[in-house]
Amino acid sequence: MREQMAERFVIALDQGTTSSRAVLVDRTGTICGMAQFPFKQLYPQPGWVEHDPQEILSTQISALINLMVSKKIEPSQIDCIGITNQRETTVVWDRQTGIPIANAIVWQCRRTADAVAELSADPAIAKTINAKTGLIPDAYFSVSKIRWLLDNTPGAREAARANRLAFGTIDTWLLWSLTRGEVHATDVTNASRTMLYNIHEGGWDDWLLELFDIPVSMMPEVRPSSSVFGQTAHSGIPAGIPICGVVGDQQAALFGQCCFKPGQAKNTYGTGCFLLMHTGFEAIESSHRLITTIAASPPGTKHTQYALEGSVFVAGALIQWLRDELGIVRSAEQTEQMACSVNDTAGVYIVPAFTGLGAPYWDPEARGLIYGLTRGTRKAHIVRAALESMAFQVYDLVSAMEEDAHFKLEALKADGGASRNDFLMQFQSNLLQVPLARPTNIESTALGAAFLAGLSSGFWQDVSCLEELSAKSRIFHPEVDDEMRWKALQGWADAIRRTLY
Ligand code: ADP
């Protein structure tokens, strides 16, 4: 009898802000296993956030090994690896020793906020940066973090001049380490978050490198997200596994949700929200200060594809606040049943502007508000208003994107922890008046990285077969009448007006 061939898999390495995960994906696109290791968040000063790059690497390797052992996967069963990562976080290391010159500066870190504000106070500079990179100048993106490391680490400037230093976002650091220094590369999606990459011309931009005084010798080579990047060669992991995909986390989720065409969009409902809308080959300039970014493309795509991106600062974080600070819910899950225990919010609106308001209002001085309280207000009304506030904020982003792209959204795909909440999904669909699809598997980020890797290795043939794999979704159809919807939106607009500084 012929021996049955062992099943083969793609492994996604999902390097997030608080943990490193390895995710096993089979040919049907099913996630069949996962291992996860958290790592330390370092706060050396108020507003500063760092990670230890070595700990990121070691937790990522532990996750890979743990997954293989627990699922009894032989190295020969791994078709390829895809990497997805927290974006913008910056590492600089010595090419010879492989040792980082300092901790990684995390995307959330505000240490360079003043420097960026000073530079972009010149409207001509801010406009040129935006025109070249699609980004709104901010400390969030990698470039000011690289500059800070060069200016504040003893000997770094000289080492950089002598071509001894390498820069990378987390994907690049992992790729370099896993290939034992063979490959110093990144993909277009991660490059587009550095604020040094010209998203129209496709390349590191000389003017930006000069403006920030960054030597081009530090910069990684930029490749398509779905391409063969190299092979594993790090001690402690099986050698020779091809790494066939690299992609930033939000673009990975867009791809994992099979948003391949203009107008297709996904929203991730997590601590905050990330809404990305595919805009095809057109880099749309936003008039609402949304970000224009590069979308991951399947192999063989001739031209760069783009997306518009907007984020909500406080989404699931508001639920955590209700639980941990106000103590009016015991768990995030409980909010669904509480919200459904009342017919509406009895006129209560929450605007969670804890750290100001983002797109499309852009008011950093605004602060949060609970409006419409009466003697009849109950806990359940407040909880319902909190969930509704996530949907209202996403509605505002979608409206801004529709205006920018001159396009009407036809459907929205949802993922992230808070997308488990059926009440929220239904309310969102009612507001947007479009169907909302929540896949059975909400791990879109890992799936996107696996898809991109598996497409370039030939594990999957093309994107149409991926669309078939991920057809299993629960669809929420809009249910509410126009008048109720209009009233809710008026109430939200009124609450926003009262919140603006
Ligand atoms: P992260 O942004 O850290 O990746 P997740 O995608 O894991 O977050 O989502 C966690 C967030 O979602 C938390 O802020 C939590 O309050 C919220 N959340 C999780 N489950 C629910 C739920 N059933 N209803 C509402 N919010 C939820």
Write the CATH architecture name of the domain at 9-249: 2-Layer Sandwich
pLDDT average, as an integer? 94
Name of the level-1 CATH class of the domain at 9-249: Alpha Beta
Helix content: 25-40%
- What is the topology, as strand order, of the major beta sheet? 17-18-16-15-21-22-23
Query: What is the name of the CATH topology of the domain at 9-249?
Result: Nucleotidyltransferase, domain 5
Q: How many DSSP H or I helices? A: 16
Q: What is bound: which ligands?
A: adenosine-5'-diphosphate
Uncertain segments: none
User: What is the total tally of β strands?
Assistant: 23
Helix/strand class:
alpha+beta
Biggest β-sheet strands, sense, barrel? 7 strands, mixed
Strand percentage, roughly?
A: 15-25%
Coarse shape: globular
Task: Summarize it.
Helix 11 crosses helix 12 (379-405). The protein is globular, with a radius of gyration of 23 Å.
Plain-language structure description:
- With 501 residues, this protein is of the alpha+beta class.
- It contains 16 helices and 23 strands.
- The chain has a domain of 241 residues: Nucleotidyltransferase, domain 5 (2-Layer Sandwich), CATH 3.30.420.
- The protein is 35% helix and 22% strand.
- A seven-stranded mixed sheet has the order 17-18-16-15-21-22-23, sandwiched between helices. Strands 3-2-1-5-14-13 form a six-stranded mixed sheet, sandwiched between helices.
- A hairpin with a 3-residue loop joins strand 1 and strand 2.
- Helix 10 packs antiparallel against helix 12, helix 11 crosses helix 12 and helix 12 packs across helix 13.
- The mean pLDDT is 94.
- It binds adenosine-5'-diphosphate (ADP).
- The site of adenosine-5'-diphosphate (ADP) has 15 residues, from helix 10 and helix 11.
- The site of adenosine-5'-diphosphate has 15 residues, from helix 10 and helix 11.
